[in-house]
Amino acid sequence: MKKILIVEDEKDMVTGLKFNLEARDYTVITAYDGDAGYQKALSEKPDLVILDLMLPKRNGYEVCKLLKEEVPDLPIIMLTAKSQEAEIVTGLELGADDYITKPFSVLELLARIKAIFRRVRSGSEIPEVCRIGNLEIDFKKYTAS
């Protein structure tokens, strides 16, 4: 079962998202400020983070940047009321895999989550090292011997 961390300070929003995600068999963890979200992402090791931008203690941009430095492959969807082009570009350039503005469609969010998991799964199916006879190919180090 995939684990999703929601980092959002609006409790009603968290309740609605949690209900919809759990109804689709996702395990949901929540955090209500940026610091707690960052710490939970490191300790709970979620498969995906849904991240608001306007958070107490540490904003979503900072959380995204820090998480991508620590866990580069962690998928992050920014879900926020900030809808200016510059804000969207900043979020994506800091490492967000997707950016959705509020108000939003829950069905669209769920479809985007599934799409991210399809991409993550297909990339993880490649072995790090492949051995054929005496030949060894290391796909992570880009070496063959």
Describe the 3D structure.
It is a single chain. The N and C termini lie far apart (38 Å). The protein has a five-stranded parallel beta sheet with strand order 2-1-3-4-5, with helices on both faces. The protein has a three-stranded antiparallel beta sheet with strand order 6-7-8, with no helix packed on it. It has 145 residues and is α/β, with parallel strands linked by helices. 43% of the residues lie in helices and 23% in strands. Helix 2 (34-44) runs parallel beside helix 3. It has one domain (3-144): Response regulator (Rossmann fold, 3-Layer(aba) Sandwich), CATH 3.40.50. The protein is globular and about 60 Å long. The chain is built from five helices and eight strands; from the N terminus they run βαβαβαβαβαβββ.
In a nutshell, what does this entry contain?
By secondary structure, this protein is an alpha/beta fold. It is built from five helices and eight strands; from the N terminus they run E-H-E-H-E-H-E-H-E-H-E-E-E.
